[in-house]
Each structure stands twice: as structure tokens, then as C-alpha cells.
Specification:
The protein is α+β, with helices and mostly antiparallel strands. It has one domain: Alpha-Beta Plaits. The chain is built from three helices and five strands. The strands form two sheets. It has a three-stranded antiparallel sheet with strand order 2-3-5, with no helix packed on it. The longest helix has 10 residues. It is elongated, with a radius of gyration of 20 Å.
């Protein structure tokens, strides 16, 4: 038993100080998709290629609305690949929330 204790004390701590010191995502990490309203053409290409179907395009009261739900997003990046610059994958990965409504993001344009 003392051998295990000595070995543990020699190796030291192997964990990080998260959440006090946030971890930085490595290069190429596919984090939270971000919608950029000034570049979106509301063409619907991202809606068509989304495997879990968490992006949808609606129209109400003369506005086109593009909505993305992070609840089912698998962060595959297919929406960014087909989009013409309006969707950008970020390095953000902390998406904890108590309510599903907090995990929705939308952009709008008047038609």
C-alpha cells in the first residue's frame, strides 16, 4: 500500500486546473458553429446537408429565419463546407445549459 502512495506522490498531479483555467482547443478542433447574418444568403444549403437536421429555414411575417439548435449538433462541419461564409466553426465547446431554448441561435432577414 505504501508503494502505491509513494508512486502517486512521485508522479504528481496529472489533471488540469479546469474550469479556473480554461483548456484551449487544439488547431483543427470543430467547435460550436456560429451564424453570421451579414454573409448569409438564406439559400438553405446548410439545411440540406445537416445530418441530424438541427438547422432549419423558416419564413414568417416577411422575414426569413435561419435557426440552429446546438442540442443535436454533432459538430461535423458539413454546414460550414457548403456555406458561402455565413457559418464558421469556432473553438468554443462549453455549451452547458439548463434549458433547450438557450441552445438555439437564429439570424433573420427581411424579405
Amino acid at each position: 500500500m505504501f508503494d502505491i502512495l509513494k508512486k502517486t506522490l512521485k508522479t504528481g498531479s496529472q489533471t488540469t486546473k479546469y474550469p479556473q483555467i480554461p483548456d484551449i482547443a487544439p488547431a483543427g478542433f470543430r467547435g460550436k458553429p456560429e451564424l453570421l447574418s451579414d454573409k448569409c444568403t438564406y439559400c438553405g444549403k446548410c439545411v440540406a446537408v445537416c445530418p441530424p437536421g438541427v438547422i432549419w429555414l423558416t419564413e414568417e411575417k416577411g422575414e426569413k429565419i435561419l435557426t440552429l439548435s446546438y442540442c443535436g449538433c454533432i459538430f461535423c462541419g458539413r454546414c460550414e463546407e457548403v456555406c458561402e461564409g455565413a457559418i464558421k466553426l469556432t473553438g468554443e465547446y462549453e455549451l452547458a445549459s439548463k434549458m433547450k431554448e438557450d441552445l438555439l441561435t437564429s439570424i433573420r432577414r427581411k424579405t
